[in-house]
Amino acid sequence: GAVVSQHPSRVICKSGTSVKIECRSLDFQATTMFWYRQFPKQSLMLMATSNEGSKATYEQGVEKDKFLINHASLTLSTLTVTSAHPEDSSFYICSAVPGLAGVYTDTQYFGPGTRLTVL
Amino acid sequence: SQKIEQNSEALNIQEGKTATLTCNYTNYSPAYLQWYRQDPGRGPVFLLLIRENEKEKRKERLKVTFDTTLKQSLFHITASQPADSATYLCALLPNRDDKIIFGKGTRLHILP
């Protein structure tokens, strides 16, 4: 149980294009999903908290107009990297917190990640 | 400053021995601490959670300790196997109203 999928697993795009990454909880509902970015040999850095039915909460230094998040249902959140540039190349990972329980006390289940390469 | 520290260098352990990984933190009083496993190019997989009022937690060959006085957690893998080779991340909840933060992880190599 508690499986989270991400699509695509890998994407290569040209500078200036937009890329959408999907995060799905396959066997549970999640009112809250998180989006992280991870650079090589670095820790996961939280980008934003995605809340179903409301606006995402972005961490300091993360541009909300560049990283658009839509949490359209209790099983799907999407991250769109708009006008991507080479510096946006990274490993993007989502996680989901099952159910309606307290956001910050439940275990997160992570997706397999999406490797984005911007040429 | 507030931070989480994990062994920065890779840890090489002979198969069958116990691997011990360290997670130290400063300036936090975390409600709980978690350990995750991350394989290359994959997302983290949750392993264990230990709460502030717990000293030790076990799961099969895994054992986690939590010393709130030393501000340290130890993660042990007994009877280690080459398949245990991965990066292990420590994460904690700084405060009850905060978000989980992660250490950089320690790469563990179990040598056959």
Task: Report low-confidence residues of chain B grouped into runs of 5 or more.
Answer: none
Question: What class would the helix/strand composition of chain B place it in?
Answer: mainly beta
Main interface: chain pair and counts: A-B, 22 and 24 residues
Tally of separate helices of chain A: 0
Proportion of residues in helical segments of chain B: under 10%
Task: Describe this structure in a few short sentences.
Chain A is mainly β and 119 residues long. Chain A has no helices and eleven strands.
Protein model, in words:
The complex is a heterodimer of chains A (119) and B (112). The mean pLDDT of chain A is 90. Chain A is globular, with a radius of gyration of 13 Å. With 119 residues, chain A is mainly β. In chain A, 0% of the residues lie in helices and 50% in strands. In chain B, 34% of the residues are buried. Chain B is mainly β. Chain B has strands spanning 3-6, 11-14, 19-26, 32-38, 45-51, 56-59, 62-67, 72-77, 86-92, 101-102, 106-111. Helices cover 0% and strands 54% of the residues of chain B. The mean pLDDT of chain B is 92. The interface between A and B is medium-sized, with 22 and 24 residues.
List keywords for this structure.
heterodimer; A: about 120 residues; mainly beta; 7-stranded mixed sheet; 4-stranded antiparallel sheet; 11 strands; globular; B: about 110 residues; 6-stranded mixed sheet; 5-stranded antiparallel sheet
Topology diagram in text:
The complex is a heterodimer of chains A (119) and B (112).
Chain A: E1 4-7, E2 10-13, E3 19-25, E4 32-38, E5 45-51, E6 57-58, E7 67-73, E8 76-81, E9 90-97, E10 109-110, E11 114-118
Parallel strand pairs in A: 2-11
Antiparallel strand pairs in A: 1-3, 3-8, 4-5, 4-9, 5-6, 7-8, 9-10, 9-11
Chain B: E1 3-6, E2 11-14, E3 19-26, E4 32-38, E5 45-51, E6 56-59, E7 62-67, E8 72-77, E9 86-92, E10 101-102, E11 106-111
Parallel strand pairs in B: 2-11
Antiparallel strand pairs in B: 1-3, 3-8, 4-5, 4-9, 6-7, 7-8, 9-10, 9-11
